[in-house]
Design brief:
This protein is α/β, with parallel strands linked by helices and 129 residues long. The protein has one domain: 2-Layer Sandwich (60s Ribosomal Protein L30, Chain: A), CATH 3.30.1330.40. Helix content is 23%, strand content 26%. The chain has three helices and five strands. The chain has helices at 16-33, 57-62, 123-128; strands spanning 2-10, 41-48, 72-76, 87-95, 106-107. It has a five-stranded mixed β-sheet with strand order 3-2-4-1-5. β2 (41-48), α2 (57-62) and β3 form a beta-alpha-beta unit. The longest helix has 18 residues, at 16-33. The chain is globular and about 40 Å long. The termini are far apart. 29% of the residues are buried.
Length: 129
């Protein structure tokens, strides 16, 4: 079965190392919580708010061991007034036996505000584990 898994995170500033670090943390947490392997990933669509321009989050994903052949693509989100700034969003298409209800979506840092109904862990809870 093909499912979509969502996630988002934020960075403190538009700096390449922060974009790479937070993207990698987000993707690894999505994979861990949904018991996925790189071979299960069909594709990863990553969007950023328009205030993030210093690095491609897809580069961070491709740098994860075993992920160099996973198709990734970056784009910018729509520029909507009062939207959450400095935000990276991920939509991962995966092969899984999990039902839609069982999929664990991951929202970290300030992005927990985007979908509190789907957020499985906050950044502070992750640090405690």
């Amino acid at each position: 079965m093909i499912r979509g898994v969502r996630g988002a995170t934020t960075v403190m500033a538009d700096e390449e190392h922060q974009i790479f670090k937070e993207t990698e943390i987000l993707v690894k947490e999505i994979v861990k919580l949904n018991n996925l392997e790189p071979e299960d990933i069909i594709s990863v669509l990553i969007s950023t708010t328009t205030d993030l321009t210093s690095g491609f989050p897809a580069k961070a994903v491709r740098s994860i061991e075993g992920w160099q052949f996973v198709p990734t693509m970056c784009t910018h989100e729509m520029s909507v007034p009062n939207a959450l700034p400095l935000c990276i969003r991920v939509l991962m298409h995966v092969n899984t036996s999990l039902s839609q209800k069982e999929i664990r979506h991951v929202y970290l840092n300030e992005a927990v505000r985007l979908r509190p109904d789907l957020a499985t862990l906050s950044g502070s809870q992750l640090m405690a584990e």
